[in-house]
Amino acid sequence: MGLFQSVHLRNRVCAALLGLSLTGALAGCASLAPDSPAGSAPAGAPAWTSERSGRVALAAEDDRGNPTRWQAGFLLKLGEGERLQLDLIDPLGNTQARIRSRADAAELETPKDGVQRYADLASLTQALTGVALPASAWRFWLRGEPDPALPARRAEDSGQRTLEQAGFTIRVARTRDDGTPALLVMTRADRPDLTVRIVLDD
Q1: Which helix (H) or strand (E) covers residue 59, if one does?
Q2: Is the pTM of this model over 0.85?
Q3: Phi, psi of 163 (to 5 degrees)
C-alpha cells in the first residue's frame, strides 16, 4: 500500500471512528453485518479462547497536526497465538469497524471501504495510527501484565502499576476490588500527542 493510499485510508477510518460518539449522526449510517455468536469462531477456525469488552478513547494528531479524538465501544475476541478480532461499536450497538488478525495476515473492514489487507497487525496499526501494535501483547496488557515474549520494565507510579513494553507505557489507572484493571492509560514517549484510554467491563 502506497503512502497516499495509507494516508487516505487513515483519514477515512478516523472520520468513521470520530462519528462513533455521535449517536444522532449514526441513525442512518451503514454498519457491518453482525459477527458469529459470542464465544464461537468462523467455520473451520479454532474457537476463541477469551473475550473482553469495554470502551476505548484515543487522542492524537492527524496528518496535519490537528487534534483528533474518538471513542467507541469494543469487543475483543482472542484466540491462540496472534489470532484476534476487534469490533469497534457505536452507541447504537452497530459495528463500524472490524479488525481481524492472525500470525501471517491482518485485515480491516469498514462499511465504506470494505476489506483492506495487511501483512500483520503491526503493519495495519502502523498504517492507521503511525504506531505498530504487537498482536501478541494485548491479551497480557489488558490484564496489566507484560507479554513474556518481549522485553519489559515494571514500575510503580503513585501506587499505580506501570508497565513499559514495545515502546508503550501502560498505566493501570484504576483497579477493581480483586486487583484486576478497570482503566488502562497508554502513552508513548516518541508520540506525546497520543493517548489511549481503555475502560474494561467486568
Answers
A1: strand 50-61
A2: no
A3: -130, 135
